[in-house]
Amino acid sequence: MTLPDSICMLPWISIETSPMGTTRPCCLAREEIPGVDLRKDTVEHAYKSQYMQDLRRQFRQGVKPETCKLCWDEEAAGRDSKRIHSRVRLKHLYPQIDWENDTPDQLWFIDLKLGNICNLKCRICGSWSSSKWAEEEMNYLPPDVDKKSHIAYTWLKQGAWPRKTEDFWTNLKALLPNIKYFEFTGGEPWLIEEHWDLLRHAVETGDSKHIDIHYNTNATVDVLSMDKSWLWNEFGRVDIAFSIDNVGARFEYERYGAKWDEANAIIDGIHWAQGVDSHNITTQLCFTVNIQNVYYLDELLEWASHKYFGSIYFNMLHSPDHMSIQHMTPAAQELVLNKLKTTFWKSNSYQREIDNVIKFIENGPGSDGSYFLQRMKQTDEYRRQNFMDTHPEIAKAMGYA
């Protein structure tokens, strides 16, 4: 059959689990699959749902579903969206897909966000994905307000679902013979003990040989000292994407709780292991472009040039809105665009990505920065920090004083 140019392979082969135990077609989908709760439902229930059947039908008919708006926005800015990246990354699966079937039996890829258990409180994150953030947000409340009334309390409790839902893991183990790709994000996946148990089970059954793994990790867990990374040798390919958005003191400000020297040591350790006896491991610098770091991308890329990353990925932040580069003040837009257009030259290997960042900014609505300032100052006051101390140029342009 002739496939529309707008087709996305993910609805046919994949499901994403959220930190709260809900599901979506992928991590960028704006809608959750209705009526699915992984504390009592299976992953297959989500994959075979009427919602997913309807989504596949829309794609096959050439419709661009509204839930996929973030991909359409990125493509409009000239960027390769997740839809396009998936077609490249999983190109070996593409010819095998049964496109005509609205109820296929091809659940090959599961994107696992296993709760919100995390050891950091990154500025671009929140209670949905970080248990540490949930604890802090409840502390913002006045003393006479019941903390249990805050949504962060609900997310703190609900985000622990993977540790309390044995049936979920039993279901995943039953799916292993059909799985070709696992993606583990967070929270912080290397802190999730149950995920190591799943990998160990896959090794024992021999299913690990046909499974590739992708991680997004915050570079704070010294996995090589945990006597668990040997499991990776039994899998196909293991991609480790390190979430490092800035350097030095700015890194520590943005990813609160992390230490710059320790993160470097962990990254260097993985690169050492990769060169010695873990030849199926690849690494990536995956940084999230947001208001805090967009002015300093040249310094981040300069640091990366001295490491041994196999690839570098510009991840565009869409949420929370107040951190998106599409919502900068006019002064910040002028500051950033001027630097991006003069610092990066046409011979630079990142020029295409930088051009797309520029276009993404220019396509945005902008803002007066008031909500950004409210959130930043509230957190600064609680943590006894000051945005101006580490990010003076962009702080001033955003109106921080």
Give the biggest sheet: 8 strands, mixed
Instruction: Give the overall shape, derived from the CA principal axes.
Output: globular
Elements, N to C (H/E): HEEHHHHEEHHHEHEEHEHEHEHHHHH
Tally of individual helices: 17
Helix content: 25-40%
Distance from first to last alpha carbon: 59 Å
Low-pLDDT segments: none
Oligomerization status of the protein chains:
single chain
Mean pLDDT: 94
In what order do the strands lie side by side in the largest sheet?
Answer: 2-1-3-5-6-7-9-10
Question: Structural class, from helix and strand content?
Answer: alpha/beta
For the CA atoms, what is the radius of gyration? Answer: 21 Å
Please provide the count of β strands: 10
Strand content: 5-15%
In short:
The chain has 401 residues and is α/β, with parallel strands linked by helices. The protein has helices at residues 10-13, 43-47, 50-60, 69-76, 82-89, 131-139, 151-158, 166-175, 193-205, 248-254, 260-276, 297-304, 330-343, 351-362, 370-383, 387-390, 392-397, and strands at 14-17, 23-24, 109-113, 121-122, 181-185, 212-217, 238-242, 255-256, 281-289, 311-316.
